[in-house]
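anyone seen this seq b4? input:
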Amino acid sequence: MATSYDYAPLFRSSVGFDRVFNLLENAQRARSISDWPPYDIVKTGDDSYRISIAVAGFAQDDLDITFQSNLLIVTGQKKETSAEGYLHRGIAGRPFEHRFELADHVRVNDADLSNGLLSIDLVREIPEALKPRKISIQSEPTVKSAAPAQIDAQKAA
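predicted toks r here
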């Protein structure tokens, strides 16, 4: 049972959050897509994450990782092998595609295939211009009180 949400009231009272609402709508649609092969998303540090995907039976050449403008796409397509000689084929080798929407300033740092797990390390790197910075407070220079100027007037004789 899928529940659909109407974001129209939020559009009326907010400006500049279009991307957030699109992410929420895409996440609802993505639920219907197969979750095969299974995967984990782990926060490994304050600004680092790891996506691990169980890709047993896939070789490095069968996998493709693409990162473009906040979207990470992992696809797998096994090369055709002959079914000859198999008495039972239980290891799934069907093609797959996983899409992960990444937050701003999150980039792919590394990818590794080991023991049937594809691990993709992500890191969030906030540009210097967007990091919080300390603003020094300057006090107004004190005005030196000078003696009032003396006006010389002509002396009356």
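The chain is about 10% helix and 30% strand. The beta strands are 39-45, 48-54, 63-68, 71-76, 96-101, 106-114, 117-124. kinda curious what u guys think
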